[in-house]
Specification:
The protein has 162 residues and is mainly beta. It has one domain (38-160). 13% of the residues lie in helices and 44% in strands.
Length: 162
């Protein structure tokens, strides 16, 4: 049964792909740049941001590679999330961390759903932090008056600069 299902899906995708491209403008697709190498001595970090619909102030959680929540607090969006670059100011128990987001899309698309992030500056524990990675953003799934920027996930590596 599973083999027939996989074969049917494969056949369907083969038939749909040329038809979908037939009406689309002919654009050269440029692959995204490869991910940057993790800096020596760096730690993997995930930053989970949640914003209420159409609001520039939300919450963040900084999660370590082991899954432990290292810090959490208030997240503020500064700048234009669509035109970019924009910054996220994260104010937690251990200090303030400012991160810049740059969208990866080079064509006018609303919203820019993915891109790269980098540490700009910090205070407290984050004062000498450097690093960056990739981000994705999406709506929360709410059907009523949602924003495409409600849930943001930043994954990358950070290291204490010397």
């Amino acid at each position: 049964m599973r083999t027939r299902t996989v074969a049917a899906i494969s056949l369907l995708l083969t038939a749909i792909a040329p038809a979908a491209r037939a009406g689309a403008p002919d654009r050269a697709r440029t692959p995204p740049p490869p991910p940057a190498e993790a800096p020596h001595g760096s730690d993997r970090a995930e930053i989970h941001l949640r914003f209420p619909a159409w609001r520039p102030v939300g919450t963040f959680r900084l999660v370590t590679a082991s899954g432990e929540v290292a810090d959490s607090g208030v997240a503020r969006e500064e700048g234009d999330a669509v035109a970019g670059p924009s910054e996220r100011v994260l104010e937690g128990e251990h200090g303030t961390l400012v991160i810049r987001l740059r969208t990866a899309s080079k064509i006018p698309v609303f919203p820019p759903l993915f891109g790269r992030w980098e540490v700009v500056r910090g205070t407290g524990t984050y004062a000498r932090l450097a690093g960056g990675g990739t981000f994705t953003t999406c709506g929360s799934g709410s059907a009523a008056k949602g924003s495409p920027f409600e849930v943001q996930t930043l994954v990358g590596h950070v290291v204490a600069a010397r």
